[in-house]
Design brief:
Elements: H1 2-65, H2 73-80, E1 119-123, E2 126-129, E3 132-142, E4 180-194, E5 198-207, E6 210-220, E7 227-235, H3 256-262, E8 268-277, E9 283-290, E10 312-323, E11 327-346, E12 351-370, E13 381-396, E14 401-419, E15 422-439, E16 442-445, E17 449-458, E18 464-477, E19 480-495
Antiparallel strand pairs: 1-2, 2-4, 3-4, 3-19, 4-5, 5-6, 6-7, 7-8, 8-9, 9-10, 10-11, 11-12, 12-13, 13-14, 14-15, 15-16, 15-17, 17-18, 18-19
Amino acid sequence: MKGFARAPLAAVTAAILLLPSMAEADELMDRLKKLETDYVELLIRDREKSQELDRLRKEVLRLQSGNRDPLPVRQRRSAQAPETGAHDHTHSGHQPEGTDDHGHDHGHAGEGGHARTDVLVEGGGIRVYTPSVALDVAGYLDNSGRDLERRLESLRGFGHSHEEGDDHGHGHDHALLREGFNLRHAEIGIAAEVTDYGLAQVLISATEDGVEAEEAFFKSVPVGGIAAFKLGLFRSDFGFFNRYHSPEWMFADAPLVHLLTFGDHGLEGVGAGVEVTVPGVPVAFGFEAFQGDGEAIFAREDEVGDVEEPSVFVGWAKGTVLDDGVNRLQLGLAGGFGKHQEIHEDGDPPEEEFVQGDAWFVSPGFSFTRRGEGRHGHGDLRIAGEYIYRMKDLEIVDEAEPVRSEQDGYHISALYGFAPRFDAGLRWEQVGLTNDGREGDERESFDDSWRLAGVLGFSPNDWSRISLQAGYGSYDFEGGREDVFQAMARFTLQLGPHFH
């Protein structure tokens, strides 16, 4: 019994001795948790201050240059109002096609207005951004039994071949939608800038056919606060659609008139450009010169002969006519001129005709945005449109026989955020209102083609978007008129900053 009595007594004694140690441990744990909380709060405040400093530096540059939209929208928006999240159709890469308001950078902001800096390394006046990644994957079908986009070149008046699906020998068709699954775009990019000097970006695109440079350019800060220069491989900055890659489109396919005029890559090339902004004037002017060799207009055929290069010149102007903080209306006008070559097949058996000469286009456009009061794009409205008129004034080589064609078209789209992270849109487009061709003394006019499409999108987070799209169109092909229904399911991803 004495042993049993001693055991509880020993336990009680040990507990009494350990109580101060346990209390001290609890106190230390509470202090540790408080210090961790305070440390996290300090990190957050420090990050916010760094972001604010970064925003203010760029805002000063904007005011000095007179440019109304040189900043990444994620920074410009956080300066104006609390951010509503990426893919809310106010600042992310996923914007209605033809809309210029989604800015020059697709780094995404978090909630509460605190944008991520997307900076990997910074020091000594040099800033290196985190690598960017972009993906565009789509499932596609249509009821024609043949891939529609590969046949569009045979629309009467718009092509120069009598064979459907001819790609002019350029082979740049990796972004065209095919039946089944499509890896439209897979891109990785790196970018860096030097304070008071400029920014460089390289975008590498991987396709089923290999790896290629999508863009690789340097853009200076505005020299004298007025003129910013751009050199390298880049997309033309004209209009409100051309500069963007497919992961940035709200609709899965490019507008008909844009695809038929410039090809699936748009108007791009190796060259140089300058953007002029006058302080206090809400209009920017641009001039660009490219080496040449486009996919549709400004094309090259080595067999036809050499062309003195650079051979493509583009000019444009964009102005903001309304900006009250909620509503914004931009207008633009662009035009381009350059050398163009084609190879025709004619006769039976077919014989090749070498054709070359000049081509030019003119394109007015507009972009209207209204920012809603809801979160994550709820209430946001975007309406954009573009018209393109093109002329090819050519001659058959060694015969001086004229080959001339003129075509036009337009598209208009609207997108509305009907709920947080959900949007719906419509696009109407028509090509061939003017659609005439002449070869020698023979003249011919062709019919128009049109398409109506609707899209429903959902952005589950700040960097991705899932959408469903359906379209119905009537097309005037070489083989006769055909009505085609299209359906698409699409996933796009945008990580990291993406500059234009």
